[in-house]
Specification:
Two copies of one chain form a homodimer. With about 140 residues, chain A is an alpha+beta fold. The first copy, chain A, has two domains: about 80 residues, Arc Repressor Mutant, subunit A (Orthogonal Bundle), CATH 1.10.10.10; about 55 residues, Dna Ligase, domain 1, CATH 3.30.1490. Chain A contains five helices and five strands, in the order αααββββαβα. In chain A, the strands form two sheets. A three-stranded mixed β-sheet of chain A has the order 4-3-5. Chain A has a two-stranded antiparallel ribbon with strand order 1-2. In chain A, a hairpin with a 5-residue loop joins strand 3 and strand 4. In chain A, helix 1 crosses helix 3 and helix 2 packs across helix 3. The N and C termini of chain A lie far apart (about 40 Å). At the A-B interface, strand 3, helix 4 and strand 5 of A face strand 3, helix 4 and strand 5 of B. Strand 5 of chain A pairs antiparallel with strand 5 of chain B. Chain A binds a DNA duplex (25 and 25 nucleotides) through helix 3.
DNA sequence: GTCCGTGCAAAAGCTTTGCAGCCTT
DNA sequence: AAGGCTGCAAAGCTTTTGCACGGAC
């Protein structure tokens, strides 16, 4: 949350490199613990603190984004093209939706407020196909 | 998060009634602690647990909504007309924006996915007028 | 050699919950 | 009288942090 004024110099770290690789390779939007479990297979002595610290660094570098999914814990994703999220009310799964993007709404809103808009996020809530077929 | 199958019978509670009243009377999007402090003035022996329990009940009744503001703590609002949020990146303030609503995007997205969309939320991020004038 | 990154463990912060007694119905 | 609601305190969970050591540069 805190923003550094000076640009930090980061060293290379195998843990962080792999963390980013895993995040990029997965379709899901993992929690810190999930990433920890996954990474622990490669680094048996890994600690959760390292995962959080590296996630914070990757976020600061703009490579990763934190998602507020409405749960008690955060989810993360590697940042790619702008996209929205479909969040299932039943199972909590998050699905990316990249086919349509509405950049114009930033201007629509900017023009009718004295708020300086830089970005927006849209989350759609409903029921995913899996959960629908189960009921 | 857990959803009850059976419909619960709620009794009246002065604390809950006042909690909702305060939430409806405020323009801000308070945290649980803010509501606690406010309500404690009326109920000196109030406990934070009661605030959380009543917020959960009000949410289940559909009268209150929890907002994921990207902070470490939750914010709440009494549910009214559909609206979006302008969230200030500098001070964290949340401003309601009710002038424009885009119900049609639910259909746009529904039509190009097999996701059953019930609702959406849009949050705009940027800088509020106060913070802009300060810099 | 410097000092960032890591592991370990403790701490922090917000939220939830068990329990006994009170209040609503 | 039954059972939700409350206060109190303890517990729970996710996330953060202090410290000493190892690794990157």
């Amino acid at each position: 949350m805190k923003q550094e004024q000076t640009v930090k110099q980061y060293r290379q770290s195998r843990q962080r490199a792999r963390l980013l690789a895993i995040l990029r390779a997965t379709e899901s939007h993992p929690t810190a613990t999930w990433l920890y479990d996954r990474l622990k297979a490669e680094f048996p002595s890994l600690s959760l603190g390292t995962v959080y610290r590296n996630l914070a660094i990757l976020i600061e570098q703009g490579l990763v984004r934190k998602i507020d999914s409405g749960s008690t814990f955060d989810r993360f994703e590697a940042k790619t093209a702008p996209h929205y999220h479909l969040i299932c009310n039943k199972c909590g799964k998050i699905i990316d939706f990249e086919e349509r993007f509405f950049p114009e709404i930033n201007y629509i809103i900017s023009n009718s407020t004295n708020f300086d808009i830089e970005s927006h996020r849209i989350d759609f809530f409903g029921t995913c196909a899996d959960c629908r077929s189960k009921s």
